[in-house]
Amino acid sequence: MLKLMNLEMRKVNFGRYINNSLAACFAVTGFLFFMLYVDRDFYTASSTDFFFLVDSITRMVFIIFSGVLISRLVIEEFNDKTITLMFTYPISRKKVISSKLLIIVGFTFFSILLSRIFATVVLTMLDNSLNFIEGNITFQMVIEHFRNTILYDFSASGISLVPLFLGMLKKSVRTTIITSIIIAAFFGASNEDLSIGSFIVIPLTLTIIGVVTSYFSIRNIEHKDVF
Amino acid sequence: MEYILRTHDLGKSFNGENVVSSINMNIKKGEIYGLLGPNGAGKTTVMKMILNLLKPSRGAIEVFNETLTNTSYELFKRMNAIIEYPIFYEKLTAKDNLDLHCEYMGYHNKQDIKTALDLVNLKNIDNKAVKNFSLGMKQRLGIARAIITKPELLILDEPVNGLDPVGIIEIRNLLEMLNKEYGITILISSHILAEIEQIADTIGVMNNGYLVEEVSMDSIRENNAEYIEIETGDAQKVVYIIDSELNIKNFKVLDTNKIRIYETGMSQNQIYKKLMENDISITSINTKTASLEDYFLSLIGGGKNA
User: Fold this and answer.
1) How big is the A-B interface in CB pairs under 8 Å?
2) Range of the structural domain that residue A22 is part of
3) How many other C-beta atoms can be found within 10 angstroms of the C-beta atom of residue B287?
4) Taking burial as the number of CB atoms within 10 A of a residue's CB, which of A72, A114, B247, B277 is the most buried?
């Protein structure tokens, strides 16, 4: 499977996507800084607001990013008919598609997590000198926050697979990207609820939705005609 | 005789409409099998079913003496194909494409990439993305890709489309070489007879989704040789003349007044003169050249013969 994933990444020139996601990460940080700093007199963000903003914006960005990856790795392969080549190889079709999905999920997860860390660290450092967040953000708070929310990153990567299902129905790049934007808007805007009851339930549900829909989109792949 | 591929009553429908029906194809090990038929006869559909891209609606396919199923992955290591037009990862270079192909096929002899490119005569393509290739170059690259791993069965769907005349001859020679020297069985399709009659050992003719005929080229040539047909009131005398006076041995009396002469090197004029000299009246004499083309046209003519 690792070998397959490696080959997939070679095929699409994956380095480009790593560069792009780094750029997105810097852009998000810059955007957040701008937002918090410019408005500091009018409305000073509390530490909760600060964490919420960082988390929701990075997730939104990378859920859309994963839509792009789905289009490139899966949908375009069908559109360009290169999938007819892939499916004549002595490899199970499910394995081929799964390797692609693993790349997407893995990449989305790490991009979100690392971007969040990057944005939080940079902004906290800036805050120390420019002071645009109410109160102090301590190292302890950051650790605590990430420990509580890492599951949400995982669920964001899971839910980012939903566009695959709709995109595969019509083999359409447009549908895929639009779906991922809609999902990003909903998911990103919803608050992280850290009360005990929903701590596990919500992210888990979202992950399950993602996994189930992607299962449905590749369930019959071995029996399907490929044109 | 060992068969490398057989289909049993193979059929495929799309939305209830039969595209291919009851195909019984038999490809012997080591031969070149030409699949001939007009556009839309179902040639590509049959090939795609062999490659497991399309799933048969009816019947079965037997490759290397094993029945093909959805998960016959091991069988795919032993065959390779170009279907319709060659498909590549267009943004990558030719070498990258071939390299990926080897990786996916589980073939590790990477020097063969260069050999294959030399065989199809592709040069100076080192840093060029495939999207900048002409159709002819893509065809060559597609053939290179199909032969790198030296498969036992090579499936080529109209492989000379888009090639220049010199290229067509080059590819034809290459296929013959692969067949003779490496013993690769080749299934090749075309809608142009001239393309494959020279290399094929057996020809399958498809029309309207049916396999109308499956014959060896040898027997076609035999049955379709040139001959001179004489119609006369007195066949016996004519036979006597052509046998004793003209020394022709290769002829056939069809019925009481029709004689066919298959002997070459004797012109219609010579025979006519001789018969006149001997005062034999004939109704007609003419040379028939039943070309292969006519033969195939008669097979697919309007599909009524199916």
Assistant:
1) 57
2) 2-218
3) 11
4) A72
> What tokens appear for A52 in the block?
């919420």
- Put simply, whether B89 touches A (Cβ < 8 Å) is yes
Contact between chains at B92 and A223 (C-beta distance less than 8 A): no
- Mean pLDDT to the nearest integer, B192-207: 84
- A225 occurs within a structural domain: no
Chain A contact for B66, CB < 8 A?
A: no
**How far is the CA of B128 from the CAs of B122, B133, B303, in angstroms?**
12, 8, 46
Q: In angstroms, how far is CA A226 from the centroid of its own chain?
A: 29
pLDDT band at A191 (very low <50, low <70, confident <90, very high): low
pLDDT tens, B105-145?
Answer: 888 888 888 888 888 888 878 788 888 888 888 888 998 99
Q: Does domain B3-215 have CATH number 3.20.20.370?
A: no
Q: What is the pLDDT of residue B305?
A: 41
pLDDT at B291: 64
| Yes or no, beta carbons of A81 and B87 under 8 Å apart | yes
Chain B residues in contact with A9 by the CB 8 A cut-off are none
Contact B89 A89 (CB under 8 A): no
Nearest residue, CB atoms, A7 vs list B71, B88, B104? B104
For residue A190, the model assigns a pLDDT of 59
Examine residue A55 and state whether it is found in any structural domain, yes or no.
yes
